[in-house]
Amino acid sequence: MSRIEKCFEQLKTDGKKALIPYITAGDPAPGYTVELMHALVESGADILEIGMPFSDPMADGPVIQLACERALAAGTNIRKVLEIIAEFRQVNQQTPVVLMGYLNPIEFFGYQAFSDAAKEAGVDGILLVDLTPEEATDVVECFRSNNIDLIYLLSPTTTPARAKKICDLASGYVYYVSVKGVTGSATLDVDNVASHVQSLREITSLPIGVGFGIRDAQTARAVSQCSDGVIVGSVLVNAIAQAKDSTQDQVADALRSILSPMRSEMDK
Question: Which sites are catalytic (predicted)?
Answer without folding.
Answer: 49 (proton acceptor), 60 (proton acceptor)
